[in-house]
C-alpha cells in the first residue's frame, strides 16, 4: 500500500513540469502502462489530475484548491511560538514575531525577557516601520517598484540620531537587508534598545513573517546581541521549514 501511495504521489511533481502522456508517466515511475493508468484514474477521480482532450494529463484544479485552503488555514503564530519560546529560554531576551498587513507591520507574538528590564512593545501594536528590524525584512521582500513607492510615501520621524532620515536612505537599507538576509535596529527607535531579526519564508520563498531578539544596553551590548544572529537565523529557518512543509514529519516512537 505504501508503495502504491508513493508511486501515485510521484506523479504530481512530474505533472508540475507540464502535461504528460501515459507512456511518460509509466516510464518515470518505472511501471507498466496499466499500473500507471490505474494510478492516474484514481488521482483523476479525486480531482488531483485532469485528462486533457489530447490524452495527456495535467494537475487538477482540486489540487490547487486544496493548496490554497491549506495556506489560508496555516497559523504562523501557532507554528512559530514553540520555536520563539525555545530561543527565549536559551538567550533570555525578548523575542518578537511580526507580519506585514495593510501597510503596517504588526507584532503578533511576543515572549518576554527573563531580565527585570522589559520592553513596551505589545501584541497587535504597529512597529516603527522605518527603523524596526522586522519591518526592514518584511518590506525588503516586496518587489522593487512596491518598495520604492512605499518608501516615498512614508514619514521619517527621527526617534534617535540613528533613525532612518529619509526615503533614499531607507531604500538603500532595504536593498542591503534583502541581499544579506537579516536586519538590525541598533538604537534606531530607542537609544538603549538593540534588535537583530531574521525572515520566515513560505513554500514559495517569499517572506511571510519576521522574528527578532531585542535587548537593552544595560543587559547586553549591541555587539553581544549580534553574536546571537546565527541562533536567530536557525530559529527562523526552523519555523520556515515547518510552515512551508519542508520539515519531514517525525515518526512516533
Overview of this structure, please?
This protein is α+β, with helices and mostly antiparallel strands and 253 residues long. Helices cover 47% and strands 18% of the residues. The chain is built from ten helices and seven strands. The chain has helices at 2-16, 22-29, 33-45, 61-73, 76-91, 133-140, 144-153, 167-180, 222-226, 229-244; strands at residues 49-51, 57-59, 94-101, 104-111, 183-186, 193-201, 207-216. The strands form two sheets. A five-stranded antiparallel beta sheet has the order 4-3-7-6-5, with helices on both faces. Helix 6 (133-140) packs across helix 8 (167-180). The longest helix has 16 residues, at 76-91. The radius of gyration is 23 Å and the shape is elongated. Residues 249-253 have low confidence and may be disordered.
Largest sheet, spatial ordering of strands: 4-3-7-6-5
Our measurement of the CA-to-CA distance between the termini, rounded to an integer number of angstroms, reads 21 Å
Series of secondary-structure elements, N-terminal to C-terminal: HHHEEHHEEHHHEEEHH
What is the tally of helical segments? 10
Q: Runs with pLDDT <50, length 5+?
A: 249-253
Class derived from helix and strand content: alpha+beta
How does the overall form come out from the CA principal axes? elongated
Our estimate of the beta-strand percent is 15-25%
Please give the number of β-strands.
Answer: 7
Biggest pleated sheet: 5 strands, antiparallel
Mean pLDDT: 89
- The percent range for helix content is 40-55%
Radius of gyration: 23 Å
